[in-house]
Design brief:
By secondary structure, this protein is α/β, with parallel strands linked by helices. Among the domains are: about 270-450, Rossmann fold, CATH 3.40.50.2000; about 455-785, Glycogen Phosphorylase B (Rossmann fold). It is built from 33 helices and 24 strands. Helix 21 crosses helix 24 (about 620-625) and helix 28 crosses helix 31 (about 740-760). The longest helix has 29 residues, at about 35-60. It is globular. The two termini are about 15 Å apart. The structure holds ligand 26V.
Amino acid sequence: MPVNDQSLTPNVLKTDVMRHLTFTLGKDAPHASLYDWRMALSYAIRDRIMEPWFASTRRTWEEDRKRVYYLSMEFLIGRILEDATINLGLHEMAERTMAELGQDFKAIVGDEPDAALGNGGLGRLAACFMESMATLGCPAYGYGIRYEHGLFRQRFEGGQQVETPEDWLSQRNPWEFDRPEATYIVGFKGHVETRDGREVWVPAETVKASAHDTPVVGWQGRWANTLRLWGAEPTTLFDLERFNRGDYTAAAEPETLARTLSRVLYPDDTTYQGKELRLKQEFFLTSAALQDILRRFKSGHGDLRALSRHVAIQMNDTHPAIAGPELIRLLVDEHGLSFDEALPVAQECLGYTNHTLLPEALERWATFTFGNVLPRHMQIVERIDGWHRRTFPARPHYVGIVKHHEVRMGELAFIMSHKVNGVSALHTDLVKANLFPELDRLHPEKIVNQTNGVTPRRWLKMANAPLARLIGETIGEGWEDDLDRLKGLEPHVKDQGFLGAFDAAKRQNKVTLSNWLGAECGVKVSPDALFDVQVKRIHEYKRQLLNILETVARWQAIRANPDAGWVPRVKIFGGKSAPGYAVAKEIIHLINDVAAVINADPLVGDLLKVIYPANYNVSMAERLVPAADLSEQISTAGKEASGTGNMKFMMNGAPTIGTLDGANVEILQEVGRENFFLFGLTAEEVMKRREDPDHARKAIEASQIMQNVLQAIAEGQFSPGQADRYHGLVHRVWHHDYFLVASDFDAYLAAQAEVDAAYKDRARWLTMAALNTARSGFFSSDRTIRGYMKEIWGVESALQD
Ligand code: 26V
């Protein structure tokens, strides 16, 4: 296995790059572009993954190991080249080799487009999980959709978000292998017939799902798994009969239907809309994956009733929840099991992860749509629901999968799984108490917690080379796949030399970032300022509004008293709004408007800057996270299921200013109260406060600062050409403040003042920052995956022996 493979001398890598440049790209070095060099290096690195990849697959077969199948509509991978290079232990060698070839390694890896096949947290979690499963030697396949267009690109025009299509496949993707031999037919619509006493689904439309495999290599190249993404293709290229009749548009219909299925990622993770295309995408992914799983099982085993001994299927939220009925359909209709045999087999295989409590994001399909697109599945869903009602007579009448002419995907996923999990301790409690209280009572052992994590290889080793180097020098190697070892940094936190080096690493990252921001946004910021970062999707519950209101308050206070010994701050925002989410778009507009006024104010100068680089994505996160001094995690308590950005910041030595929400609770526990800027209402208090219809007005009337802020915005101080631009927004804060911005405002201000005080005390601040890194070991996704393997999947690592 190529762990720091000695046989791969720089010369060999150089030869490989040149060979690919010549024979794969067909380019002569003097004429090669950055793209050509990137492709040549990517192929040379990819070659090194083949051996561990084949060996892993071979061993899984030979040892007849149980496999994990991770079904997800989203995989937010980002760039692959540098990550693969690091995991293969080839990073320095690749850097050197490319330098010898006269090429800049950083520019080469930066030329790769992000694979942005996800919206945010849920998709990025799936990508971290794939990397951790490979690192842990957990035999696994990720199944997803090969969207032609990932998440849209964001631009700002006059401070407002404008979306343009993303185009990652316009260049060749060197990481994927087409597998035309692995294709399956997926049907839609039509009707169900009874033939010889059996139900037979006769679909009216069919498409072909065709596999595209990307290898995912773990730390030190010890194991590699497969991410299999399905592309949709027509089953018949076009209707020749119609074509010959001259009906050219109709002749191309099968092709049009197929292509739209894997054309574009749904960009709205806020509000659920019962769109037929979305249901078709979900079934397309799920059916192709399950057919593939059964084919693989059948090629090694006979009796499908033993499926769950060999197969664990995880549903990433309810998006693939059609897996329950589809698995039953395949087992019964195609493989001859009875319903009573198939049901427990499916349940023992399936697990369901819940990622949100927001009622507007929970999937429910009108029975009309569901029955029209998937008529056979509608029958099976009714049968499952009937079985559950009869088997658990204590089930209240208002509980069930099909209610009020809707199919509820959460209830379906719950009932069809042997385990259901939340993604942080608090979230899991709320799933039990608020989302599925009755089902929890009927199935008391089913709901378990698996607190999220992030991969330290990408988010520390790769993104933060200066800090990773310092960690290595201080505690030695081996922390990368055993993150609890970071605890070993704690004794050094008292050492001035170590703190100075920690400071220097952070400063280096801040200098790099300010140069990039200068080039990208045209705003110069001082690396001596406190870098205060909030990056995530724009949602009301995540409360970017609270942050920008505090920014206005700070600006007013600085103007009123410029010599009060202010700590210079750079407020950095990043994130996209769903295209149809008007309120989120208004918040983006406000942030940009406030930035324009503050950044142009000579009275304030370097004491306050507001920067919002457009098109936040995984690669931008890799720049921002290592350079952050302060991590903003300020959601309304009870709304953020976990958060994973919060963990990345902690690992990179940025203390959190945050509410008691999601995994913040566990971060606080690990890092200690004195190293966390805690503020705000608790989840319980939030629910209580909402009972008072006047909560916002009362909070605002009690806060002169808040009144001043809202007045400045309402007067048009930030929208000089259009004074009434934010009347609606201000009105909503006063009268419809569902996310309790007003109620938490003063507490947030006080916490920010504590941040300033702490930052001024250099020794105190650096100690806090370093302790955040030292105590972040729990948040490695390796720990999370070990939990899933043991408590949900019943799978063992192939690397233990
Ligand atoms: C819902 C929908 C509705 C249908 C259209 C497309 C779509 C896409 C996504 C979603 C739900 C997104 C839920 C989500 O991303 N939750 C986040 O999951 C993270 C990983 O567990 C967690 O850290 C975040 O707190 C949570 O918001």
